[in-house]
């Protein structure tokens, strides 16, 4: 267990070799609650979590927010080394690079724990070989919620083929080095693209968006006005999204 902020933590669990996933996908995790009948299926509460760890890591890592009074996250946050949690055998989701044809730039736009699938994607060597530029934009409310910031800064400074641009966004407190407006506004006013000296367009860009539904709805609208569209059967697009509740 690793605490990032009072309401944020990540954790690692052992991994059965039979569990397979593609970077960007999510798994269903279960924790047991006290129902008075430990053998009842209802004694295990299940929730979906994107995998943080790389595809071939010997462990599984996940990133979570604590929802006060929730049926799942407070119990999960109380787990400690040696505790038992459960994992469904299947993996789910389509927020993967397989959705796209090759392009120059890969943009990963997220809020809060929506960063999780992008960390897994960045953990794959192929990601760094198939794109020239990787852009991670992580928007949070307060600076202590910028989880994995040092990991991303270190990756941005490493020579691994593609160039990684890490752009932190903090919306409720002025923070040195971070942008302060929400992601849709940063796209509309051009500040985000100016920050990384790249432009989002259908020819050169592929965009993954993950996080709260309001951000995704507004971001999709801005990107659609630029000609970016989701993939359809037989018609690969430039955009893939995943809501985080």
What does this entry look like structurally?
The protein has 245 residues and is of the alpha/beta class. It has two domains: 2-92, Elongation Factor Tu (Ef-tu), domain 3; 97-243, Nucleotide-binding domain of ferredoxin-NADP reductase (FNR) module (Rossmann fold), CATH 3.40.50.80. The protein is built from seven helices and eleven strands. Strand 1 (2-5) and strand 2 form a beta hairpin. The longest helix is centred in the last third of the chain and has 13 residues, at 213-225. It is globular, with a radius of gyration of 18 Å. The two termini are 23 Å apart. The mean pLDDT is 94.
Quick summary:
The chain is α/β, with parallel strands linked by helices.
């Amino acid at each position: 267990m690793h605490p990032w902020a009072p309401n944020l933590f990540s954790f690692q669990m052992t991994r059965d070799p039979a569990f397979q996933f593609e970077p960007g996908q999510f798994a269903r995790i279960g924790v047991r609650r006290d129902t008075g009948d430990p053998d009842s299926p209802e004694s295990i509460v299940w929730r979906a979590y994107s995998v943080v760890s790389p595809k071939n890591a010997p462990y599984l890592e996940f990133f979570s927010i604590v929802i006060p009074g929730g049926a799942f996250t407070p119990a999960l946050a109380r787990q400690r080394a040696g505790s038992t949690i459960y994992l469904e055998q299947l993996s789910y989701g389509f927020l993967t690079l397989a959705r796209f044809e090759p392009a120059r730039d890969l943009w990963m736009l997220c809020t809060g724990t929506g960063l999780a699938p992008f960390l897994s994607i960045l953990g794959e060597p192929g990601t760094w070989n198939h794109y020239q530029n990787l852009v991670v934009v992580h928007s949070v409310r307060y600076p202590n919620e910028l989880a994995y910031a040092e990991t991303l800064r270190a990756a941005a400074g490493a020579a691994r083929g593609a160039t990684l641009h890490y752009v932190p966004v903090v919306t409720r407190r002025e923070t040195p080095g971070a942008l302060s407006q929400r992601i849709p506004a940063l796209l509309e006013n051009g500040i985000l693209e100016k920050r990384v000296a790249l432009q989002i367009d259908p020819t050169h860009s592929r965009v993954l968006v993950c996080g709260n539904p309001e951000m995704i709805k507004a971001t999709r609208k801005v990107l659609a006005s630029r000609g970016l569209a989701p993939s359809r059967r037989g018609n690969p697009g430039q955009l893939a999204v995943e809501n985080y509740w």
